[in-house]
Structure prediction request, 349 residues.
Amino acid sequence: MTFLWPQYLWLMLAVPLLVLVYVWLLRRKKKLVLRYASLAVIKQAVSPAMGWRRHVPPALFLLALALMLLAASRPLAVVSLPSDHATIVLAMDVSLSMRATDVKPNRLVAAQEAAKAFLKELPRNIRVAIVTFAGTAQLVQPATLNREDLVAAIDRFQMQRGTAVGSGIVVSLQELFPDEGIDLSEMIYGAGQKRGKSLDEPAGDKKPKKEFVPVAPGSFESAAIVLLTDGRRTTGVETQEAAMMAANHGVRVYSVGLGTVDGEVAGMEGWSMYLRLDEASLKAVAQVTQGEYYYANNAEALKKVYEKLGTRLQVDKKETEISGLLALAAAVLSIGAAALSLLWFNRIL
Prediction:
């Protein structure tokens, strides 16, 4: 625990001083009672029930005073709070291999249903964006709080050839950091060699990029990427290059592997495809970004994975001032002390 105003902690010395004053008053009162009171009054004063009860209200009031003095120093504590500005990007594979029926009814439908269930479990104040990737990657739904728009975007998925896992991560970062000028085309084709442009083409009104300063992996608590894929990268940005980019931005990537780990040839509607999940790459992505890797080999396991993610991504741990909580506790204790004193002794302390 740290304090914004630690110079006020010396006020806590008043607590032991008040304890000494209370003990002195008790002894002084006892002497006066023995000197002037009758024997009946003395017996009543020293009865066992009255003995411990008379100390309860002052003890509660003293504790309340200690909490108020502590609150004056404005303490800070790390607490778990619901995130009110978090953004989660669902980056989902829509390659042709997602038509495989080893996950019923097929991989794509299972992924879509699990994603919808995930949206229902998230708090309504968390924004969600959706990125799809196959031969390339694209943002199909910008970050929004509107769950209906997100569900509609999930239902519109169109499968394509190729698996650009790294590009899916990069486009997700584009959505999370729109002011940094992250350019997927430039990363794939190189500066000045973007698709459809030549070296002689003027830059136009393009804004200069902001200077980027890397941060510690996993330190950006306001966003996360959930990456779901059933295959290995075949095109686009290198997966580990994109993962390092996410790590340098402090964004955790929670990777979900869906499909066949050992690699098998799957036949679908007269054509076959060699399906193999690049589990090692997905684990490396999660490790470098301080995220986690999950393997889901069926629809039920996939739903459980999303349930875990929903629980994990609901809160942020933040250093928060708790002076208000201490003041509230002090007020409750003060009221309790006064109420007990009135109930037992017909007086306020």
About this structure: Residues 2-79+320-345 form one domain.
